[in-house]
Amino acid sequence: NAGVTQTPKFQVLKTGQSMTLQCAQDMNHNSMYWYRQDPGMGLRLIYYSASEGTTDKGEVPNGYNVSRLNKREFSLRLESAAPSQTSVYFCASSRDRGHGYTFGSGTRLTVV
Amino acid sequence: AQSVTQLGSHVSVSEGALVLLRCNYSSSVPPHLFWYVQYPNQGLQLLLKYTTGATLVKGINGFEAEFKKSETSFHLTKPSAHMSDAAEYFCAVSDRGTYKYIFGTGTRLKVLA
């Protein structure tokens, strides 16, 4: 099925470990986004890529890096995980500004 | 900076009753407006959106929302709640010309039998 695919679905990390969350879309969308979802706080934008070759910081970028590998793929890297990064991470894509997002099913990350 | 407020983190309605979920935004210039639904352990799904044109917008699953500029509101309604509507609902806004969306904190809808 067409859509946004995120891997892994679940991950437990120890404090200080690193990992990369993968995201791929097959809808030929230009824009891609990484959000984190925490109880009572809605979704907060970490980084986004308006188009292939560009990335920009969102609301909560500290502790994260991203790579727009090509038009399909947008990865999120945690260099040194902290317990405060325990969250559910969602990748989304959009055809262009003003269009709605298509979301992936999320990655539930726990940092102990 | 743009902000969005969803009044009521939890709303309960009886099956068959009207659903009303509230959303207000802060911008003086009409933004793009969206409602998303999230079922447990799933990603968010677009319900409906307003970008321009008709202020009453119809979406999936019988939901609709009305953009009211004078009230800076975009409330979500459904005439008759169904058990399958139980989920969390998020309002989102984006300023025209930007790529960033701001999400509300969500309203969890409970439907009582």
Lay out the secondary structure.
The complex is a heterodimer of chains A (112) and B (113).
Chain A: E1 4-7, E2 10-13, E3 19-25, E4 31-37, E5 43-49, E6 56-57, E7 64-68, E8 74-78, E9 87-94, E10 102-103, E11 107-111
Parallel strand pairs in A: 2-11
Antiparallel strand pairs in A: 1-3, 3-8, 4-5, 4-9, 5-6, 7-8, 9-10, 9-11
Chain B: E1 4-5, E2 10-14, E3 19-21, E4 24-25, E5 32-38, E6 44-50, E7 56-58, E8 64-68, E9 73-78, E10 87-94, E11 102-103, E12 107-112
Parallel strand pairs in B: 2-12
Antiparallel strand pairs in B: 1-4, 3-9, 5-6, 5-10, 7-8, 8-9, 10-11, 10-12
Note the run of SSEs of chain B as H and E.
EEEEEEEEEEEE
How many helical stretches of chain A? 0
Beta-strand percentage of chain B?
over 45%
Distance between the termini of chain A: 34 Å
Distance between the amino and carboxyl termini of chain B: 41 Å
- Helix- and strand-based class of chain B? mainly beta
Q: Percent helix among the residues of chain B?
A: under 10%
In N-to-C order, the SSE pattern of chain A is EEEEEEEEEEE
Beta-strand segment tally of chain A: 11
- The helix count of chain B comes to 0
Largest sheet of chain B: 6 strands, mixed
The poorly predicted ranges of chain A are: none
Biggest β-sheet of chain A: count, sense, barrel?
A: 7 strands, mixed
General form of chain B: globular
Oligomerization status of the protein chains: heterodimer
Rg of chain B is 13 Å
Radius of gyration of chain A: 13 Å
Number of strands of chain B: 12
